[in-house]
Write a structure and sequence with these properties.
The structure holds 2 protein chains of 2 kinds.
Chain A: H1 7-15, H2 28-34, H3 38-61, H4 71-93, H5 95-101, H6 112-122, H7 127-157, E1 159-160, E2 163-164, H8 174-177, H9 179-217
Antiparallel strand pairs in A: 1-2
Chain B: H1 2-13, H2 16-20, H3 24-29, H4 34-63, H5 72-94, H6 96-102, H7 106-110, H8 113-124, H9 129-157, H10 169-184
Helix pairs in contact in B: 1-9, 4-5, 4-8, 4-9, 5-6, 5-8, 9-10
Classes of the chains: A mainly alpha, B mainly alpha.
């Protein structure tokens, strides 16, 4: 039991420690493309999470039946099937959202987060554990997309989820909703998260040294 | 003339990397050196051109013919994956120098979303066969242009003093942002 981390750990690690966007730098294409507004980011993340959870479930169920040589092709087929389902459902139920996300819904097929999780996790673990892991990674993705989408929407159009938050005299920064703004925002956010992590590590190290010195003194 | 506009629009005005965010992974991963970035660009252009031809044929001659449009994504990704494998074997057989130049990049291209994106855009924009080919070549040229410029800047960046938290991916993204700003200068030259 000691070798396997607890179930809650499997979930939480995707949120921050192994966050797919900030830490693993996977799946940047959809992240940059759809985060013009917070609602687009949420929709994209939910669609991706759906595909991720169900492909993880299926892959881990059939993991012993797939020969190793053709595993990647099989994973991609499973993923593409679920992406087709999502795309058709979105076209029928949320035609406007589907139009604004455009070709980025079908491009979930080549999102490296999904294939990465199948290869690194679902192909080696039980179905239940794989689903928990997929949910964690999906939530981490959702978190990143929501933060990025809200920031770009607040500065770029002065609203969040369509509600006005900036005062009337605020002149929206057009650059934030243009492609350039996406690159800049994500770059800055990544830098900040790196800074936070190194800063925290430094404090931890200092604490350990201090404690060691205290013990030595007594 | 119209074909030239399609080519130019795909290569510069609506650059795949800088306005559609397609192919960001190799754009960040393989842009350390100009020579390898250029080879990657050439390999991608090559695969893009073939993809444009093959997926157009499959979509219009098989999927539309038999009302199987819902199989679009499944069949495109399968075709692209096997195509890349096939191209790799073919190049290895006919030209060793070419294989040495492009070989290691070919497997990476399967997971390049720009390729699937290209196939989807050709269907979405309802291009004819010839237009599709020009669009594919243009998109490849645009990718090559962007990744080579990026590699050139990053080679200079090695001697610059970048703050520690920003080293690696973050600074690359910020440079890409500035590049995207520069490319915005072309927008409005051609509509669509």
């Amino acid at each position: 039991m000691s070798s396997k981390p607890s179930l809650s750990n499997e979930f939480v690690k995707g949120l921050w420690e192994n966050n797919p966007i900030f830490k693993q730098v996977l799946g940047t294409c959809p992240t940059l493309a759809v985060t013009v507004s917070a609602i687009n980011g949420i929709a994209m993340a939910l669609a991706t999470t759906f595909v991720l959870v169900f492909s993880s479930l299926i892959v881990s169920l059939v993991r012993k039946l797939i020969p190793t040589q053709v595993r990647i092709a099989s994973y991609i087929l499973i993923i593409a099937t679920f992406v087709t389902i999502v795309d058709l459902v979105m076209k029928a139920q949320f035609p406007e959202l589907s139009k604004s996300l455009g070709p980025y819904i079908p491009l979930i097929v080549v999102n490296c987060i999904i294939l990465g999780r199948q290869e690194a996790f679902a192909s080696k673990n039980s179905p239940f554990r794989s689903v928990i892991d997929a949910l964690g990674m999906g939530s981490g993705f959702l978190l990143a997309l929501f933060v990025l989408g809200s920031l770009r929407e607040i500065f770029g159009s002065g609203t969040i989820l369509g509600l006005q938050v900036m005062p009337n005299f605020y002149e929206p920064w057009l650059i934030m909703i243009l492609p350039a703004g996406a690159f800049l925002t994500l770059g800055l956010l990544m830098g900040l998260s790196n800074f936070y992590v190194t800063h925290k590590k430094k404090i931890e190290k200092e604490n350990i040294i201090q404690e060691y010195l205290k013990i030595k003194a007594t | 003339m119209e074909l030239f506009i399609i080519f130019f629009s795909a290569a510069v005005v609506n650059n795949f990397v800088l306005t559609y965010f397609l192919g960001i992974c190799p754009f960040i991963g393989v842009s350390n050196k100009i020579s390898s970035a250029f080879s990657m660009g050439l390999a991608t252009t090559f695969v893009m051109t073939i993809t444009a031809i093959v997926t157009w044929l499959i979509y219009h001659l098989i999927l539309v013919e038999f009302h199987l449009e819902f199989l679009e994504y499944v069949s495109f990704i399968l075709v692209i994956a096997s195509l890349v494998q096939f191209v790799e074997m073919f190049i290895k057989k006919i030209s060793q120098p070419l294989y040495r130049a492009l070989g290691i990049f070919l497997p990476l291209i399967t997971t390049n979303c720009a390729i699937l994106g290209l196939a989807l855009f050709i269907v979405l924009k309802d291009y004819s066969f010839i237009e599709g080919i020009f669009y594919g070549v243009g998109a490849g040229a645009g990718f090559t242009l962007a990744i080579t410029i990026m590699a050139g800047i990053r080679e200079e960046l090695d001697i610059a003093d970048v703050p520690k938290p920003f080293q690696g991916a973050p600074i690359t993204l910020i440079i890409a942002g500035i590049l995207a700003l520069a490319f915005m200068g072309f927008s409005g030259m051609i509509s669509g």
